[in-house]
Amino acid sequence: MEKTEAHWVASMASIAQHQDQKAFAEVFRHFAPRVKAFLIKSGADYALAEECMQDVMATLWHKAHLYDPSRASVATWIFTIARNRKIDLLRRYARPEPEDLPWGPEDAPDQADAIALQQESTKLAEAVRKLPKKQRDLIERAYFGDLTHSEIAAETGLPLGTIKSRIRLALERLRHAMN
Amino acid sequence: MPAIRHHVPDDLLMGYAAGVLPQAFDLVVATHVSLNDDARVRLAGYEELGGAVLSDISEAELAPDSLEQTLAKISRMQPTERSAPTGGVFPAPLRKMVGGDASAVKWKSIARGTKQALLCADGDATARLLYIPAGQAMPEHSHRGTEMTLVLQGGYSSEDGHFKRGDLEVAGQQTHHTPIADDDGEDCICLVATDGRLRFDGLLPRIAQVFLRI
Fold first, then answer.
1. Of residues A104, A120, A102, the one with CA closest to residue A112
2. Residue B141's pLDDT is what?
3. Does A149 contact B60 at a Cβ distance shorter than 8 Å?
4. Of A33, A71, A142, which is closest to B59 when you measure between CB atoms?
5. Chain B closest CA to A102's CA: distance in Å?
6. Interface predicted TM-score of the whole assembly (ipTM), two decimals
7. Binding-face residues of A in 101-140 toward B, CB within 8 A
8. B117: part of which helix (H) or strand (E)?
9. How far apart are CA A124 and CA A109, in angstroms?
10. Global pTM?
11. If you ran DSSP here, which 8-state letter would residue B203 be given?
């Protein structure tokens, strides 16, 4: 049965808090074949894709405590690690990344924000799955790097607006907690 | 109407989310996002789309000992600490590229107190820092493709408006403007990326054409 986003968020928490190898193995079985496929479609050969995927999953273990479920789904967070590792390896420079938001250990992500984002990202993933093949291919190609720029949100009518308002809310809460 | 935006256009933000921009443009977007929550939110939206694509992809076959290899890798790696906010003039991504804050830049004089420092060149795309004394005009330059200018300190005005710290100006090659640094005592520092070849002539360039008039 397909695991829910809430399940993967709980797995991440278990990895971060208890170094839970069983939870990690489950996350690995689900995401590692997808990460590897993403790297192959982006132009890596099988050996490099395997190596790079292992780096990505090992990074996931060590950065699990930095994952914030109110700001990204688990798949999205893994996607960003894979994308950055791909650039490190294929283009041989460290990708410039935005500064982390300054927050302390007491600023735990808001539970309601996290659940709202999970719902929105599930909806977005479903919407992507239901797109006509032509449009799905378009998006895939944009993210695998054959297409440089496109007007995806406007062209496909994907619900990017609501997901952004969820993330905006989470960010505002975070900023508010800091002041 | 000149092609000017105070915010990063969607196509550049999406290109950054997908990881397909040249390094010089990655640097400007990452630095802008560090200073602008609206851009941070819009970027997060495009990254969610990347996550949805990853979820939807057909799986590749793993090496038979893939998990064991990964666990071995984990035991060899150092844990990652949360990076502390930097403060200062330069946000973290720019600081990393320069190797320090504004005081660490190795400037080269252009003229009349105006200085520049080349940070990276990736094909035709280059990123450099510009230093313009308060009240002075920016050096004239031309570019064939897109130019992004991000203000880090001070500000400048042109016929296209006023730009202050965190503001981003994106200009196509048709843009002609003569920016002048604010005359308020604070010298202006900008991060500028240009690309002679970066064209928004992909499959669906309409949004780029609207924003960039190319």
1. A120
2. 62
3. no
4. A33
5. 5
6. 0.84
7. 101-102, 121, 124-125, 127-129, 136, 138-140
8. strand B114-122
9. 21
10. 0.85
11. S
Mean pLDDT computed over every residue of chain A: 82
Region B152-171 average pLDDT:
89
Chain B contacts in chain A segment 53-112 (CB below 8 A): 53-55, 57-59, 61-63, 65-66, 71-80, 82-84, 86-87, 91, 93-102
Q: What are phi and psi of B155, to 5 degrees?
A: -170, 170
Contact A142 B62 (CB under 8 A): no
pLDDT at B91 over 70: yes
Calpha distance B121→B195 (Å, rounded): 10
Nearest CA in chain A to B84: A102
Distance CA A23, CA A27 (A): 6
Q: Do B70 and A54 touch (CB under 8 A)?
A: yes
Closest CA relative to residue B105, chosen from B15, B181, B190: B190
* Mean per-residue pLDDT, A68-72: 91
- Are B49 and A82 in contact (CB < 8 Å)? no
Q: Give the mean pLDDT of A148-177.
A: 58
The residue assigned the tokens 């070849």 is B197
